[in-house]
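Reviewer comment 2.1 asked that we show a complete input and output for one of the modelled complexes. We chose the zinc ion case, as it is the one discussed in the main text.
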Amino acid sequence: MSIFRRKLHNLTHPLLGRILMLHRVVEHRSEGENRELEITPEFLRRTIETYRQQGHRFVSIDEACDIISNGRTNHPFVCLTFDDGYQDNYDIAYPILKQMEVPFAIYVTTGFIDNRIPIRWYPNEKLGINTEYLKTMDADPLCTIGAHTVSHPKLDNLSPQEQQKEIEQSLQELESILGHPIHHFSYPHGAYNADTLKIVNDCHFISTLRAWGGSIRKGDATLLELPRIELKEP
Ligand SMILES: [Zn+2]
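Response of the prediction step:
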């Protein structure tokens, strides 16, 4: 798209907001490849303050979906989403989000709960969230829990039957732990195909999230392929 066409598009498709993708919040970031999955508490606070100073409003994933469906908002929204289900989301991020009154969503890979299966990219650490802490956050109106499969596969590498099992089982496990319906899902690695879309549609998710794609403008996004922006600390 040319710059002119992009400007025209932006005028006719005003900015609604952005969904930020986060993973871990840690006091000391790793040195290796996992570093970009990690932000510090200071960076989280600063990000929230900066968006607020710029007139953005932090909303839950449900409210973000309402705004996207209605196609209008007075202030661009920001929605914080944490993928995978790390214990540090409770230990470090949650106290900050509670203190600053910021809604957030956590997309949990159910195999990682209580470290029932290892997190492949952190082979020597037990970082999965404990069931009781997950329940504590779920009981807070600021928090929404979503599903993120059972074992964190690249769904587009799996048969439709295997995909269905990964998605439905994670949904059922979360619903049985938390005792209420789960309405949101994020694609591990941002990977999905036409079969995945059919399955998430049949599961009646309100929204499903990609791992890339930028901000959300009026008329640009469907709720089953919502774009996100990865929040990266320099
Ligand atoms: Zn993930």
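Helices lie at 3-12, 41-53, 61-70, 87-99, 131-138, 160-178, 194-202. We note this here for comparison with the apo prediction described in Section 3.2.
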